[in-house]
Design a protein that fits this description.
CATH class of the largest domain: Alpha Beta
Order of helices and strands: HEHEHEHEHE
Distance between the termini: 94 Å
Shape: elongated
CATH superfamily of the largest domain: Rhodanese-like domain
CATH architecture of the largest domain: 3-Layer(aba) Sandwich
Radius of gyration: 28 Å
Largest sheet: 5 strands, parallel
Strand order of the largest sheet: 1-5-4-2-3
Helix content: 40-55%
Number of strands: 5
């Protein structure tokens, strides 16, 4: 019984020493990376009221309608540029040269505007705000 206790004590001491040595070696070779460098860029989702407030504020902005040509011709928000979500990747850099510009994006219900907004961010645009669909737009539209 005493031999067993002595063996367990020696084993615990050995494991403790080995663990401390191993930890010290690992810590010496570890580089820390600030968490902020791993953050991902994203667009901001806002509601129609916030979008209207931005439009009325006098700041410069671009508004993108990400629906189809047919939907756009049936009615759109005044000043909107039609770039269907399936054409954003091909047309954005030509039609939207300032990647820091404030860009507001909408579609019919909000699904395509989210896709278009995500694509803009992926292309390097830094100030994208998605505000859903024209079906939830309580303000005037033009034809």
């Amino acid at each position: 019984m005493q031999k067993l206790r002595r063996f367990i004590t020696m084993l615990l001491i050995s494991l403790s020493l080995f663990g401390l040595t191993a930890c010290n070696n690992v810590e010496d070779n570890v580089e820390t990376v600030p968490v902020a460098t791993t953050a991902t860029l994203s667009y901001e989702q806002i509601n129609a009221e916030k979008a209207k407030e931005i439009m009325d504020s006098g700041v410069d902005y671009i508004i993108i309608d990400s629906r189809t040509d047919e939907e756009f011709s049936q009615g759109h928000i005044e000043g909107a540029i039609l770039i269907p979500e399936y054409e954003i990747a091909q047309r954005a850099e030509t039609e939207l040269p300032d990647k820091d510009a404030l860009i507001l994006v909408y579609c019919r219900s909000g699904r395509r505007s989210k896709i278009a907004s995500a694509e803009l961010v992926k292309l390097g645009y830094t100030n994208v705000k998605e505000f859903g669909g024209i079906i939830d737009w309580p303000y005037e539209i033009v034809q």
